[in-house]
Backbone:
């Protein structure tokens, strides 16, 4: 029997991954879904996110975990020093390097832009004539639901170990 643990199963991406895993898992698989929801706190230390992930990786090794799956972001594979990596993929860049250095088997999923976020980020500028946020740079948007299904498959071992998968839309589009 194989045991799989999915943290953040109550989140957007994790929820879709959990639904997919529940649909396709084998009867012999033991699956544990956990929440990472932090209720009741007034502050959170996002600055220490990378260090927290490093500690989780170390704890995984110490408890006998053999493989980790991590959802990352496009651009995290930059070969630039961490302080030169753009803001959005910076934490992911650091965490990916920690995963590689851990010696554990891994699967990393780099998600591109969620189409679900488009209204949230672009809507404020839509009422201005001719104002767009992409500056004529196309993006290959992908549904968060699809990213969740891919992550569920990765967790269940449907991909070779020590691989990185880019999850992206079928073609780049403008605003």
Residues:
């Amino acid at each position: 029997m194989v045991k799989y643990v999915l943290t953040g199963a109550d989140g957007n991406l994790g929820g879709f991954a959990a639904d997919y895993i529940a649909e396709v898992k084998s009867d012999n698989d033991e699956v544990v879904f956990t929440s990472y929801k932090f209720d009741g706190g007034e502050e959170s230390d996002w600055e220490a996110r990378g260090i927290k992930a490093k500690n989780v990786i170390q704890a995984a090794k110490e408890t006998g975990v053999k493989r980790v799956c991590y959802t990352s972001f496009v651009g995290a594979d930059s070969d630039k020093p961490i302080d030169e990596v753009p803001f959005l993929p910076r934490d992911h860049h650091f965490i990916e390097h920690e995963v590689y250095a851990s010696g554990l088997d891994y699967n990393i999923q780099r998600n591109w832009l969620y189409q679900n976020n488009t209204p949230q980020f672009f809507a404020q500028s839509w009422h201005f004539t001719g104002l767009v946020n992409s500056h004529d740079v196309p993006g290959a948007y992908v549904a968060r639901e699809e990213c969740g299904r891919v992550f569920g498959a990765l967790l269940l071992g449907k991909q070779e170990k020590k691989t990185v998968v880019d999850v992206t839309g079928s073609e780049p589009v403008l605003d």
User: Anything to note?
Assistant: Residues 87-102 form the longest helix (16 residues). The chain is about 35% helix and 15% strand. The first strand starts at residue 3 and ends at 6. The domain at 3-167 is CATH 3.40.50.720 (Rossmann fold).
